[in-house]
Hints:
It is built from seven helices and 18 strands. The protein has helices at about 60-65, 85-100, 105-120, 195-210, 255-265, 275-285, 325-335; strands at about 5, 30-35, 40-50, 65-70, 70-75, 80-85, 130-140, 155-165, 170-175, 215, 225-230, 230-235, 240-245, 270-275, 290-295, 300-310, 310-315, 345-350.
Amino acid sequence: MTFDVRLAEKSRLAETNFNDLPFGRIFSDHMFRADYNGKDWINTAITPYAALSLEPSAAVIHYGQSIFEGMKAYCSANNEILLFRPLENFKRMNNSAQRLSMPLIPEPIFMDGLKALLKVDSGWVPKGGGKSLYIRPVYFATDAVIGVHPSEYYSFLIITSPTDVYYNKPLKVRIEKTYSRASRSGTGYAKAAGNYAGALYPTQLAKEAGYDQVIWTDAATNTKVEESGTMNLMFVINGVLVTPSLSASKLAGVTRDSVIEIAKYWGYSVEERDVYVAEVVDALKNGSLTEAFGTGTAANIARIALISDDGIDYTVPETNESSFSSKASDFLDKLKTGAVTDPFNWIVRV
């Protein structure tokens, strides 16, 4: 597809300090937009990044029909712009849209719009040192009607943000048993904005207690590990890579799937199954748990240094260059920037 392109009168590139890129606070010059009018996709264009105009009665404000994705673009050594598995994000966004009764986004709108935007803002893709251009597709209801029913009108945007690493140190996490992220038949598998709103308060409580994040447990029994606030979870127990199996209450992470495929490719044993809190605690006590880490687009592979359960803190062993998570993190970093051969055909060149 081709799109109207309206360029910003003045670029903000020259005034941006690429040595100081706090996550999600600096935005590129342009954004992609497409609107749905109840029948057709219209107004497809690349425009200057700017504030939106919404009616006070807009459905998204009142009834929460809002979903988003998170993905990244990288700059290779020869200045190519590389995307990591973007079609997986497209598929997941439409899974989320279906769950929230929103029209599916056509692939050309998503993929061609994304590539066109990246070509216009190619100068915003930072180089080296773990830096990347974070990409945020977001899709929300715009009906100016107060009424509990699916909206007829929607807007789809793609905005981008140059960023450094999300977590710059190993994490301390607390197992959460009072509050739940999602139920078995809820919206946990969708990347719905409301899922994150409900997670803010218990995460705030954990941070006030000195932890970086929570580990969510299942809503029914609070005995099974689900995921963390910004990432899926993985453990190495007795030399086996163990991760909670996917369900309707968990987000199917693209990085999670990638790490599993890499582990299998390298010949590691992998188990996707129910992971019990008691099992993790026992493995920490007896030393059979040697690695714990999170996986996510923003987090990449984030090492967990401490896990707290029922007020007791357990230290996770330190990793080294031969640890699985260290090798997987290094391989993914090189793969995403084109520094190693891609055996999985995951990289898409813009």
